[in-house]
Amino acid sequence: MQVAGLLVTGGRSSRMGRDKATMRLSRGWPTFASNAGRCLRDGVAPEPALEVGPGASGLPTAADFGVEDPQTGPLTAVVAGAEALRRSGFCGPVVVLATDLPLATVELVSFLAGFPRPGSVVPVVGGRMQPLAARWSEADLETARRLAALGERSVRAVFRDAGSLLDETVWRDFVPGRVFSDVDEPGDLAGLALGSGSAAPRPTAR
After folding, report:
1. What does the longest C-alpha to C-alpha distance in the chain come to?
2. What span, in angstroms and rounded, lies between the C-alpha atoms of 146 and 78?
3. Could you count the other beta carbons within 10 Å of the beta carbon of residue 107?
4. Which string of b and e fits 77-88 if b means at least 16 CB within 10 Å?
5. Using omega within 30 degrees of 0 as the cis cutoff, is the peptide bond preceding 46 cis?
6. pLDDT reading at 75 higher than 80
7. pLDDT, the chain, mean
8. Which domains does the chain have, with CATH numbers?
9. CA dihedral sign, ordered 94, 85, 11, 71
10. CB neighbours (10 Å) of residue 19?
């Protein structure tokens, strides 16, 4: 199955108070965006991976293909990214990754891209679906486009089919739960930095 990658970096980071894409867990670690960009690029290769945002990851951006980030939330960002991929010549499912997952790994992206199930693959963690660390099918990308055009802004609204959801009893045999740890507030960052140690990906300066 051919699967592309989309990195969403254009959020306002209002609860954090600064741009999460350029943050690091600690000195010597890659920025959130550069780590996520590398994971997507390597995890979906040889298919394309794009960033929807200002270009913090090192990936080509949606703007490179004439599609601007509407900056109205992750749903419209995914729609913009899907259109940019279409203009680049790619049509197919997409692994979507948010920039605020600093413990994301290539293995997570590869797992999502290659999971042997047709349609979308959306992990459920602690009872909550993770649409920004998931594989979106062509059909659900089209649903996202239609919903966004109607004014919907919740990414969870796309996945009303329970068949898209991947229970923890399935994914935990392939990826550790820490890869879904997101950073929304300063306390989240401090907690991850203190607990990273050997459990986190090996830091690489960028």
Report:
1. 45
2. 12
3. 16
4. bbbbbbbbbeeb
5. yes
6. yes
7. 87
8. 4-192 (3.90.550.10)
9. negative
10. 19
Q: Which residues make beta-bridge pairs with 71?
A: none
For 146-196, the pLDDT digits (tens) are 999 999 999 999 998 888 999 999 999 999 999 998 876 555 555 565 454
Q: What are phi and psi of 105, to 5 degrees?
A: -130, 165
The SS3 assignment for 176 reads coil
129-138, pLDDT tens digit by residue? 999 999 999 9
Where do we find the tokens 């959306």? Answer: 122
DSSP 61: B
Span 19-37, pLDDT tens digits: 778 888 777 788 999 999 9
> What does the buried/exposed string (b/e) look like for 110-132 if buried means 16 or more CB atoms within 10 Å of the residue's CB?
bbbbebeeeebbbbbbeeebbbb
Predicted TM-score (pTM) of the model is: 0.87
What 8-state DSSP symbol labels residue 18? S
